[in-house]
Write a structure and sequence with these properties.
The complex is a heterodimer of chains A (about 110) and B (about 120). By secondary structure, chain A is mainly beta. In chain A, about 0% of the residues lie in helices and about 45% in strands. Classes of the chains: A mainly beta (about 110), B mainly beta (about 120).
Chain lengths: ~110, ~120
């Protein structure tokens, strides 16, 4: 089955840029979705199809995908961005959706 | 505003079943998949399966094959997820969500399996 690998944690100072990676075999050929989950809340979609943003999501959130790595970039990080972030792709070989293990973003 | 509203907290004994509802509003039910995802305490998101409400077709994650049933009632715009033969490891928050890229999500339903 297809495996997505995320770093368990990323730390960044306020105002800096956070980059959260999602690794997978030839993930660049797939559409990647990213979700933000704050403590005690349901997840929220922040980027879909690699780089598109749903309405209401700040432009500070962006995504890219190439080769074996997809990246969620959060610019000018704020305290309110502290959350767990998950990537997701469709594995066409099994017709299953797959989540990465999640990355905890800490704002220092 | 598109919303998915789930049924409330459940407590079950091992070996029994649980059925959770997910009622949608403010969009056409048959135009988007409904997917189910769970999250065990302190753990990550786990995809369980999906249904196409237009035709009732379902896809399940392999680990739930034989234990998971997902249905959709187009007369009430409600999707259901039923998990049987419950064990303690099924204790989790269960979410429904709309579409191929999950947006939005229901508020979650806590299911506790304990003897």
């Amino acid at each position: 089955s297809y495996v997505l690998t995320q770093p368990p944690s990323v730390s960044v100072a306020p105002g800096q840029t956070a980059r959260i990676t999602c690794g997978g075999n030839n993930i660049g050929s797939k559409g990647v979705h990213w979700y933000q989950q704050k403590s005690g809340q349901a997840p929220v979609l922040v980027v879909y199809d690699n780089s598109d943003r749903p309405s209401g999501i700040p432009e500070r959130f962006s995504g890219s995908n190439s080769g074996n790595t997809a990246t969620l970039t959060i610019g000018r990080v704020e305290a309110g961005d502290e959350a767990d972030y998950y990537c997701q792709v469709w594995d066409s070989s099994t017709d299953h959706w797959v989540f990465g293990g999640g990355t905890k973003l800490t704002v220092l | 505003e598109v919303q998915l509203v789930q049924s409330g907290t459940e407590v079950r004994k091992p070996g029994t079943s649980v059925k959770i509802s997910c009622k949608i509003s403010d969009y056409t039910f048959t135009e988007h998949y409904i997917q189910w995802v769970r999250q065990a305490p302190g753990k990550g998101l786990e995809w369980m399966g999906l249904i196409d409400p237009e035709n009732g077709e379902t896809i399940f994650a392999e680990k739930f094959q034989g234990r998971l049933t997902i249905t959709a009632d187009t007369s009430s715009d409600t999707a259901y997820m039923e998990l049987s033969s419950l064990r303690s490891e099924d204790t989790a928050v269960y979410y429904c969500a709309r579409g191929s890229h999950l947006d939005p999500w229901g508020q979650g339903t806590l299911v506790t399996v304990s003897s």
